[in-house]
Design brief:
The complex is a heterodimer of chains A (about 350) and B (about 325). Chain A contains 13 helices and no strands. Chain A is mostly helical and about 350 residues long. In chain A, helix 5 runs antiparallel to helix 11 and helix 10 packs across helix 11. The model of chain A has no long low-confidence stretch (mean pLDDT about 85). By secondary structure, chain B is mostly helical. Chain B folds into 2 domains: about 220 residues, Orthogonal Bundle (MetI-like fold); about 35 residues, no CATH class. Helices cover about 65% and strands about 0% of the residues of chain B. The chains are: A mainly alpha (about 350), B mainly alpha (about 325). Chains A and B meet through helix 1, helix 6, helix 7, helix 9 and helix 11 of A and helix 6, helix 7, helix 12 and helix 14 of B. Chain B: It is found in: Cell membrane. Chain B: Belongs to the binding-protein-dependent transport system permease family. Chain B: This is ABC transporter permease subunit.
């Protein structure tokens, strides 16, 4: 276990190094001059040149023959390692501060989306496997097929239009009504409102969460339902399940204790793999629902060529994905004792 | 991992393929949907002639509801009544009109061409490049495998759409590189930005095929017939391309059908974000993006292009499931 852990950690670190390199090169290859973007189209060439100099954008990318450390990449890496992600070109706010302020919104939305996926997807998958080829099975299969085939941005617009505008039963966009103000503790509005004893605000936050969470959760829901069904079918056909039934255990016990626990492994893997998809889907969902999270932030930054924000946001997203993948890998052993790391 | 052989062109195996395929309901439904969209794409110009670059001004018809509503809605009835003959034409604009008075059905129909082309081409590119790299990595192993494995790990750590956005924003300049301009001409897409989006989506899929092909090759490589070919003195190239690759194709084909679905959604998503196809090109995602200013009063501008994306994607997903039933029966539950 020890040496596996070290190798797995080393690989994660190497991947993160690769991520930083890719983002560095990508961001600097986006056409257009960030200095001009900052100063506006009518900036004089001299002013733009001075600003480039000030931002260090006139230095070579990787290697400066005169002074090896006086290049953009070494400076960028040193800053990155000390947690300095630079400053937003337009806003002049440190990227890390923006990131800290916006991440909870995306995290809250992603958790809500995962909850939607698990609370609907897992029971649907279990039911489909237990009543194979019944109407429930067909229904679950159809829902999961529709879920993966539905473009997130279209689903988001449809939900916002029908439930938000036409029926008016849920807010069509935003994160919290303007009449409420929640002082952050965890950054999750629903939790914070409850902790601060503001049930009305908590309820409003939940209402704002529902539509974007359904939109963002649609694909994970479909995948969770599908994987749960096939994993359950697989497990239910195994000898030990038959043995458990043969010794007279109740159906419910067999399903919940013997089968489900062993069917969880692929489900956990898939949930882990959804981390990237959720962060990607957040770009679309947040843009549609004006959700003040990382996705809409990075999207705006791309259209404004705000290098430091794109850099910080994308690196952070990739970092989250790598860490989640690591945790998923490590959680295998506790879920399936047959797996040993060597 | 699967070891099923791909249907060769011998009559006997062909009939096995079709017999199994006919038994797969999702496969049949998917094939019908996909075929319908292919036919619509091919005959789009015959059904509804249209040139997005040369459009007549029809401002009097801005944002009108689907013409069927003329049957019960007085206002729509007036819109779709021919001033000369006085007849109501309920088929004038079955999906309604957009903010420039254009018929949405016509644009959705012509969008079929774009989406199918882009979805298929980006998938084929990813499939060919990814599988080739995966076969090489799996067959030769060693440093090549390590390097490719590392690059794959790094690429898969990025949320796909972010990687695609990044790639698309690098090459979306006014002067497209030669490769992109060339592909634009080759596939007659008339939009360098769309080609960039297509390549971006393709790039994101490459690691998926690389991993898949590598895994399959690792299992096929150990089988007796490959060892036999080696013992008979077959060269490395012959072993890879004549013996290992053809026997590794089934899962790649299944993944291919499913990837066309993903690619269609992702290209539309890039169009929706304003990075892919640009107006006036009738690309479905771009149409939905256009509709964002109007859909509160004219929801049909958003509903129909989205429905087209949904049905196309559904078709390819069903087809992929069907192909899996046929080519890879053991993985189906």
């Amino acid at each position: 276990m020890g040496s596996y852990l070290i190798r797995r950690l080393a690989r994660t670190l190497l991947v993160m190094l690769g991520i930083s390199l890719v983002v560095f090169v990508f961001v600097r290859s986006i056409p257009g001059d960030p200095a001009v973007a900052m100063l506006g189209e009518r900036a004089t060439p001299e002013a733009a040149a001075a600003l480039r100099e000030q931002l260090g954008l006139n230095k070579p990318w990787f290697f400066n023959p005169a002074n090896p450390l006086d290049a953009q990449y070494p400076k960028y890496m040193t800053a990155l390692l000390s947690g300095d992600l630079g400053t937003g070109l337009k806003s002049n706010i440190p990227v890390l501060d923006d990131l800290k302020a916006r991440f909870p919104a995306t995290a809250e939305l992603s958790v809500a989306a995962l909850l939607v996926a698990l609370l609907i997807g897992m029971p649907a998958g279990i039911l489909a496997a237990l009543r194979r080829n019944s109407i429930w099975d067909n229904l679950a299969t159809t829902i999961s097929l529709v879920g993966v085939s539905m473009p997130v941005f279209w689903l988001g617009l449809l939900l916002s239009y029908f439930f938000g505008v036409k029926l008016g039963i849920l807010p069509p966009s935003g994160r919290l009504g303007t009449e409420f103000d929640i002082a952050p503790i965890t950054g999750f509005n629903v939790l914070d409102a409850l902790l601060r004893g503001q049930p009305a605000a908590a309820w409003d936050a939940v209402r704002h969460l529902i539509l974007p969470a359904i939109a963002l959760g649609s694909i994970p829901l479909a995948i969770v339902a599908r994987i749960t069904r096939s994993a359950m079918l697989d497990v239910l056909n195994q000898d030990y399940v038959r043995t458990a039934r043969a010794k007279g255990l109740a159906d419910r016990t067999v399903t919940m204790k013997h089968a489900l626990r062993n069917a969880l492994l692929p489900v956990v893997t898939v949930i882990g793999l959804q981390a990237g998809a959720l962060l990607g889907g957040a770009v679309l969902t947040e843009t549609i629902f004006s959700w003040p999270g990382l996705g809409s932030w990075v999207y705006d930054a791309i259209s404004q060529r705000d290098y430091p924000i794109i850099q910080g946001g994308v690196i952070f997203a990739a970092l989250v994905v790598s860490v989640v993948n690591l945790l998923v890998d490590l959680s295998y052993a506790s879920l399936d004792p047959r797996i040993q790391y060597s | 991992m699967t070891t099923t052989t791909v249907p060769q062109s011998t009559p006997k195996q062909d009939s096995i393929f079709w017999r199994r395929f006919r038994r797969s309901t999702p496969g049949k439904v998917g094939a019908v949907i996909v075929l319908a969209f292919v036919l619509l794409a091919v005959f789009a110009s015959v059904l509804k002639p249209y040139d997005p670059r040369n459009e007549p001004n029809r401002y009097s018809l801005r944002l009108k509801p689907p013409s069927v509503t003329a049957l019960w809605n007085e206002e729509a009835k007036q819109t779709y009544t021919d001033p000369v003959s006085g007849k109501v034409n309920v088929l004038a604009a079955p999906f309604g009109t957009d903010n420039l008075g254009r018929d949405i059905l016509t644009r959705v129909l012509h969008g079929t061409r774009i989406s199918l082309k882009v979805g298929v081409v980006s998938t084929i590119l990813a499939l060919v490049i990814g599988s080739l790299l995966g076969v090489l990595a799996g067959y030769f192993g060693g440093w090549l495998d390590s390097v490719l494995g590392y690059v794959t790990d790094v690429m898969l750590a990025f949320p796909g759409i972010l990687l695609a956005i990044g790639f698309a924003s690098i090459f979306s300049a006014d002067n497209p590189p030669l490769l992109i301009a060339g592909m634009d001409r080759l596939f007659a897409l008339n939009s360098p930005q769309l080609v960039t989006a297509m390549l971006a989506v393709s790039l994101v899929q490459i690691p998926v095929y690389l991993r898949l092909a590598r895994g399959v090759v690792l299992s096929v490589r150990e089988r007796e017939f490959v060892a036999a070919a080696g013992a008979l003195g077959a060269s490395q190239g012959r072993m890879v391309f004549r013996h290992v690759l053809p026997n590794s194709l089934s899962p790649l084909i299944v993944q291919g059908a499913l990837s066309i679905a993903t690619a269609t959604i992702e290209v539309a998503a890039l169009g929706f974000l304003g990075i892919g196809a640009q107006p006036p090109l009738p690309e479905w995602g771009t149409m939905i993006s256009d509709s964002r200013q109007y859909y509160l009063d004219a929801p049909w501008t958003m509903i129909f292009p989205g429905l087209a994306i949904f049905l196309t994607v559904l078709g390819f997903n069903l087809l992929g499931d069907g192909l899996r039933d046929v080519l890879d029966p053991r993985s189906t539950q």
